[in-house]
Amino acid sequence: MKKILLACILSVSLWAAEHNVYSVTFNAPIDKVENNMLTKFQAENLVVAWQLDILDEFNKRGLVKKLGDKYNTGKLSNVRTLVACNGMIGNDIMNADPTMMAYCPIRITLTEKDGKTTVLYVRPTSAPKDSKAYPHLVKLEKKVTKAIEDSMEME
Q1: Which of 19, 22, 40, 130 could link 151 by a cystine bridge, Cβ 3.0 to 4.6 Å?
Q2: Ordered per-residue pLDDT tens for the chain, 155 residues
Q3: What pLDDT, on a 0 to 100 scale, did the predictor assign at position 18?
Q4: pLDDT at 151
Q5: Calpha distance 79→50 (Å, rounded)
Q6: Rounded Cα gap, residues 154 and 60, in angstroms
Q7: Which domains does the chain have, with CATH numbers?
Q8: In Å, what is the CA distance from 8 to each residue of 25, 34, 110, 115?
Q9: In sequence order, which residues have a C-beta less than 8 Å from that of residue 74 and are 6 or more positions away?
Q10: Cα 99 to Cα 119: distance, rounded to the nearest angstrom
């Protein structure tokens, strides 16, 4: 079963490699995916500096009432985001090309619908390839996507 899951993840990842947004969907609730990701992020020295429950924040700000039937038309049951960084890679990026710090720290968004969780991540390798920081951005992307993919192998 794990081999099938890994094959599915890798095929999605290869397809997504042609796009600026990495996207993978797991047949698991958001709490499980997020908890597993946080464990793998810690193992990869990706420090989570900030987390936000987006739908909860929207509710607190009265968007349900303000937007009425235009609110959450995709019927997502949960949307969360987190910001993380690997200090060593972040320092390398900052030293090589400070303008590429727009890609570090990284932001991950998790959405849940019908018990399935999708992880979304803007790929740092969408940055200009001629930047001196590009090799570090590649390293960062590999570290993040590996942590995401490995997170669902946990039981």
Answers
A1: 40
A2: 455 444 445 455 444 446 899 999 999 999 999 999 999 999 999 999 999 999 999 999 999 999 999 999 999 999 999 999 999 999 999 999 999 999 999 999 999 999 999 999 999 999 999 999 999 999 999 999 999 999 887 55
A3: 60
A4: 87
A5: 15
A6: 33
A7: 2-151 (3.30.310.70)
A8: 9, 19, 18, 18
A9: 113
A10: 26
User: 3-state DSSP call for residue 86?
Assistant: coil
What is the identity of the amino acid at 130? Answer: D
54 is written with which tokens?
């987006």
User: Taking the CA atoms of the chain, what radius of gyration do you get in angstroms?
Assistant: 16
Q: Is the backbone peptide bond immediately before 105 cis, with ω within 30 degrees of 0?
A: yes
Q: Which amino acid is at 105?
A: P
One-letter amino acid at 3 equals: K
Six-digit token string for 110: 């998790």
Return the residue matching tokens 């959450």: 72
Q: Which residue has the tokens 């095929």?
A: 11
